[in-house]
Amino acid sequence: MEPKISLCMIVKNEEQNIRRCLKSVAGAVDEIIVVDTGSTDATAEIAREYRARVHFFPWNDNFSDARNASLDLASGDWILFLDADEELAAGSGEALRRLAGGDAVDGYFVQIINYLGSEGYLEPCADLVFRLFRNHKDYRFRGSIHEQIVDVILEKNNRARYRAAEEIVILHYGYLDRQIAEKGKIDRNLTLLKRELAATPGNRLLRYHYGVELYRAKKYKEAAEQLLQAAQGIDPQTIYLPKLLRHIVLSCYAACEYAPALDIIRQGLELFPHYADLYYYGGMICFDRGEYGRAVEFFQQALATPGQPVYFASFYGVRGFRACYQLGRLAEMFLNEDEAMRYYVLSLRDNPSFLPALESIIRLLRPREEPAYAKKCLEQLCDFCSPGAALLLGRMFFQQQAYVPALEYLERGATEGNPDGEISLYRAVCLAQQRRFLEALRILDSFHPAQPLYPLARMNQLLCFWWQGKQRKAKDLAKELFALGLSPDTETVVTLLIGTPGKGKPEAAPGEGGMALLLDILARTLDLGENELASRLLEGLTTDCRRQNAVAVGRIYHRYGYLDAAEHYLEIDRHEHPDCAETLSLLAEIKEKRQEYLAAVELYQRALAVDPGKPQHYMRLIRLYEKMRQSIIQKAEQIFPGPDDAHKILQEAAEK
């Protein structure tokens, strides 16, 4: 006779999850026991739809009591326990039936995939958990939270044997950001764990869980203290030790306690020399400390590690796309764009959903300057045939101010369902930046006052008229915007756009939000080639305001190739902040582009003196010296023409 399996659950207000869970066990279990600890939603009704036996149990801040109430009702030979925010993965039901038919073991550790993050981007993290065991009246859970039964079974039956059954897979969604926020899990767990620890201070496993919850609560120093205490004198064979070590490292890292974190990594790698997570986080710490060579070694070692045991609960991608991405960032810091591109491509191929790698690839392709080349490269790398993928790429091009390819992909991905008008607004901006003002205005005019983006649409209409010199229409739109009740900062910027600056003392000094808007308008104005309009806009600012925002303005002028204006504003900032490495480096780049090499060398050297930890300054200086060397050789060849091997002689002399 085939063994009978009972599914035992405890639930509370799980109407959003329980249907998925119960649907996944159809045919895999013989009975469903649901203990409800106080739901006020449709949880119990949904459970009954799946023929569950629902039992109500007053919540008493003790998970074991509730779990044991479900065990008391179970009549099966085996107990499977799940939470409502979990489900059995496809194919696990057959494995469950097969394993329950054996008689060699008393329980199974099964694989669980914890999904982290948000529903828009899920990150899986695998682990082993004890979820299937024989039904015996003496086998009952212990502990008010993070309840355990493994040790209890061994206490009751010292011949009990366990096995890992990784072919049974549980998918867990309870660590998603929304789930945690809605249920207040962290605060609840901290309260229960603290109380339990007060009663059993020597319980190492509880202290580990307490430290993990403190980490989730962003109490990093407290978390590190508790986790270190849990690790003192621990048996190296303890199954959760790798996870404990990783959480100590994470807590120390988040608390900026880098030296202790690296010491734990060193000790951990002595015990687990192939633990990818420790190499990866060692790389992150060294990256933050400016120890770039060591960071590269750590990340490369993470890539070289073999497959991780499930009980390591290794973080998704640390031996793949994440390590590649960090190596790409490091290569960029040393201005090695070819190497950076190689690593970003490897990262994206390992995980096509990893957007930071795609964003970095797009940035390196410089789509604003070379849109056709960037588009060709990306279409060779990725498939953007679906509307969603096209919209994603359109947004990324938009962020890089590459308005021509952005418009193409936004239109390719546009659908009728765009209730908030975001894509329509993006398309209108792209059209305006190509001077297709009539088409842009037609889209912007379709927005109605009930839409959240209506004020932004009207602002863009105003800009279209302003760029065309249609001041009267711009003023009419400004009146409408004022009537909508703008923030004081936005009102200041609108006033600047429709005013006549330059006469008398300037008076406008927008706050932080207003300056962000004004700088965006400045960039778009320069993108259109309207340098005079941009200058007039900035003239409306007070002298102090221009001085305080000089580096940001200079950066924008530099990005769009207006070197004289960029130099003017950067010199203003240099006067105010003579030790700003960014300003010195940007000024050096301008001098270099003008072939004023000695002035550029001096500025790069000053940037190095101010910020010696940034490799970019060294690399730019090295490249400049090489450029100067080649320039000198060319001049020498012009002055001393000779036989065909003159160039070779000069090169050899230069190298000596």
Automatic annotation (TrEMBL):
Q: InterPro entries, alphabetically?
A: Glyco_trans_2-like (IPR001173), Nucleotide-diphossugar_trans (IPR029044), TPR-like_helical_dom_sf (IPR011990), TPR_rpt (IPR019734)
> Which UniProt keywords are present, listed alphabetically?
TPR repeat, Transferase
Q: Which Gene3D superfamilies match?
A: Spore Coat Polysaccharide Biosynthesis Protein SpsA, Chain A, Tetratricopeptide repeat domain
Instruction: Please report the stretch or stretches of sequence annotated as the Glycosyltransferase 2-like domain.
Output: 6-127
Q: Name one Pfam family in it.
A: TPR_16
TPR repeat spans? 276-309, 581-614
The family database entries (SUPFAM superfamilies) matched by this protein are listed as:
Nucleotide-diphospho-sugar transferases, TPR-like
Query: Where is coiled-coil annotated?
Result: none
Q: Which PANTHER family match?
A: GLYCOSYLTRANSFERASE, POLY-BETA-1,6-N-ACETYL-D-GLUCOSAMINE SYNTHASE
State what protein this is by name.
Answer: Glycosyl transferase family 2
Q: Which organism is it from?
A: Desulfotomaculum copahuensis
Lineage per the UniProt record: Bacteria, Bacillati, Bacillota, Clostridia, Eubacteriales
